[in-house]
Amino acid sequence: MAFLHLPILIIVLYAFTTEDRTYQFPPPGLTVAWFAKAFARSDMWAALSLSLQVAAVATLIALVLGTMVAAAMYRFQFLGKDLIAALLILPIALPGILTGIALLTTFKRLAIEPGFWTIVVGHATFCIVTVYNNVVARFRRTGYSQVEASMDLGADYFKTWRFVVLPSIATALLAGGMLSFALSFDEVIVTTFTAADQKTLPIWFLSELFRPRERPITNVVALFVMLITFLPIVLAQWLTRDTDDLHGGGKTT
Amino acid sequence: MVATKPLRRRISDLFYLRPSFLLLLLLTPPLLWMGIIYLGSLFNLLLYSFYSLNDFTGQVEYRFSLTAFKQLFSSPANIDVVLRTTLMALAVTLLCALIGFPIAYYIAFYTRGASRTFWYLMVLLPLWSSYLVKVYAGRLILAQEGVVSWLFNLLGLGGLLEAILNIPVIGGSSLSSSYLGMATVFVYVWLPYMILPVIASLERVPRSLIQASADLGAKPRQTFWKVIWPLAIPGVAAGSIFTFSLTLGDYIIPQVVGQPGFFIGQMVYIQQGTAGNLPLAAAFSVVPIGIIALYLIFMRRLGAFDAL
After folding, report:
1. Could you tell me if B44 and B36 are in contact, meaning their C-beta atoms sit under 8 angstroms apart?
2. Which of A76, B74, B204, B210, CA to CA, is 20 to 30 A from B2?
3. What is the pLDDT of residues A105-144, one digit of tens each?
4. Which pTM was predicted?
């Protein structure tokens, strides 16, 4: 198990090393200078800001579409239901590279310039299933009788949605949203194909990896990336703690 | 009378009286997105693999042609790429199963209550930390002057590491530039994907069966091979789908750690980018679909789909 955890801890240590050319271990000395240097890099901040924007918009789209399909799948029986479930899972079941190159060929054919929105489209596609999984699990637990009771008491669909359904799925929405946000924030493979020269934080990080100088800046940013990915997921787990399993399924690709 | 109802009420009534209308309304946007944007793109990818590049203009010619596939399969270097990637995916899957199974076995059979929660978290936490950071951590640790060689030297085993790195094929100038190192990083990053489904399948093994087996005089080893293992196979198969397919499509790890030999993912990346040959990139990306399809057919026989 140490095999699974030590590497992450080592990253933390390396963010403080005084050695800037090699990955010498143990570090010859410790310093916090790299934090200041990393924070002074404007390209890092630009990448961070792009990542946050993409993740926010992609999560929003995934929340709306994922909740709609979850409501439909829970409420109704219809032909092709299993097919839809399979279709939703496909983007995370197949290697991410396929989603990436498939979207790229389509953008090329339609003569769409890669940019902010093409990245968002790619991310939203694999985030929908995360929201769907969380929301549909909550729907199954809540039961439809509450909705029927609300309507029997004279509320219309909109009122029922606002005062009965929404409060009961609120934490599931939040959890699904958090997971989507983390997934999108961490995504590299799909992004490399759907972005032109825009750099999200992971892409910026990857390009920094191959620069021999100022390596500890990479370590500092790694620490950063990890925290931003990690915290929403932990929060999501906490939000769904005694309800149902967290449906993060197939993270990364 | 009907006309005086507020619009909102009328829409609500419509939903109530015609549920299929509501269904249509709910399903259309997500299905349009997944069906047109995603499936459409996959279909378009397939089409692209049957296009070719005009030699003079360098533009894609939108006419049916098998050029890309011919290019792919006529070059021994490309065949090497496919073989290398597939072998690595198989090796990583095997290693994940070998390392992951005992851990899953321990968690499923020897932990209770709080200690189980603890172990679960220990498996889940790495899954939640950033993928790229994990890959980077792997490179950092395996580097020539990194933690692993420091540890080997500390234990006076520097010579052993040297000997391992001298083995042809898996060795290299340092761990971070060898196939061994690459496989280590792959295993490190995918291992939780193997452990979790195996735990799930082991938890479903009825304890009474194990007791019955012991009562009937089976030795622990016999109980394991005749009772527990057959029931755990679907879990291992399910985990192997993840590790296999993830390795097959990854292009970051081969780029950051390991030997310079290309992997399928890198070929897709290079062909669409610097080489500008989108049809060939598409053909390359169709290959893992084929391999995964074959793999799934094989795994289905082992009952992997019941354990997902």
Report:
1. no
2. A76
3. 899 888 888 889 999 999 999 999 889 988 988 888 877 7
4. 0.82
